[in-house]
Amino acid sequence: MADDALFEFLHMEIVAHVYKEQATREDIDKERVTCVSTLELMGFRVGQGLIERFTKDCPTFKEDLDIMKFLCKDLWSTIFRKQIDNLRTNHQGTYVLQDNKFALLTQFSTGKQYLEEAPKYLAFSCGLIRGALSNLGLESVVTAEVSLMPSCKFQVVIQKL
Amino acid sequence: MADDALFEFLHMEIVAHVYKEQATREDIDKERVTCVSTLELMGFRVGQGLIERFTKDCPTFKEDLDIMKFLCKDLWSTIFRKQIDNLRTNHQGTYVLQDNKFALLTQFSTGKQYLEEAPKYLAFSCGLIRGALSNLGLESVVTAEVSLMPSCKFQVVIQKL
């Protein structure tokens, strides 16, 4: 339905806008890094806001793994209309979330043709995860990796304080 | 639920980003106009994309009024979770759509205190309406007016070719 399309279109606009705006500036060297971190930060704040509303009436979580499961099931379904397909952990604070058909990559041809475009479209979501976790008390570093569109792996490394 | 919050948070981020980015540039005079038109244009493209998906399996519309009714009921509910409360027309191509509790203004205190902030948060939606109508064959000029938050009136003037 048009429902999820709203988020997808809006996301595309943001990515396009952030990259276009940078292109008109002078420091082209820093371009990529800046765009990715701008998008990541937007995602971070949206993730913070969402999780706050979303867990308003939830019991608190006992373990980090419970938080990750909640994120993979409940939060992911709300935002991306499907659950994470596979969650792995080394039980030492590193989690790998695999989405075999990631919503924000489905507009691309499948395969390897547009792989170098992928980071643009993953930065916001990395931030989203980091923001959600942050509001649940977990500081983390989140990166994403695509080897074959539209499948995507997010790696979350929890930062022990 | 977190569902509509996603759009609201994302919208807030976009508005904040567009204004912040302009603030760091030199030509501050043009600031307001540029930000509003940037947001309007983003809304336009999102509106175009949404209506295309949304009317994929719809019968074509007979009259302009049917298009406006569709927009006020179906499209508005999908995006803003409620219908337009009141639709008026002079039957000469001007339509006034009144939303008594416009989703993107509900975060503000009600009343007149933040009235001057309103245009920031309406530009995207004006573009959304214009984009949707444009894809249904109607070129229009869309403006918005707020006299008391969170109520809002959108004026649509169809441009006869």
TrEMBL record, chains A, B:
Source domain of life: Eukaryota
Keywords (A to Z) from UniProt: Endoplasmic reticulum, Golgi apparatus, Neurogenesis
CDD domains: TRAPPC6A_Trs33
Stored Pfam families: TRAPP
GO cellular component: cis-Golgi network; endoplasmic reticulum; trans-Golgi network; TRAPP complex
A GO BP entry: nervous system development
UniProt subcellular location: Endoplasmic reticulum; Golgi apparatus, cis-Golgi network
Family from the record: Belongs to the TRAPP small subunits family. BET3 subfamily.
Main function: Component of a transport protein particle (TRAPP) complex that may function in specific stages of inter-organelle traffic. Specifically involved in the early development of neural circuitry, likely by controlling the frequency and amplitude of intracellular calcium transients implicated in the regulation of neuron differentiation and survival.
PANTHER family: TRAFFICKING PROTEIN PARTICLE COMPLEX 6B-LIKE (PTHR12817:SF7), TRAFFICKING PROTEIN PARTICLE COMPLEX SUBUNIT 6B (PTHR12817)
Name of protein: Trafficking protein particle complex subunit 6B
Source organism: Cyprinus carpio (Common carp)
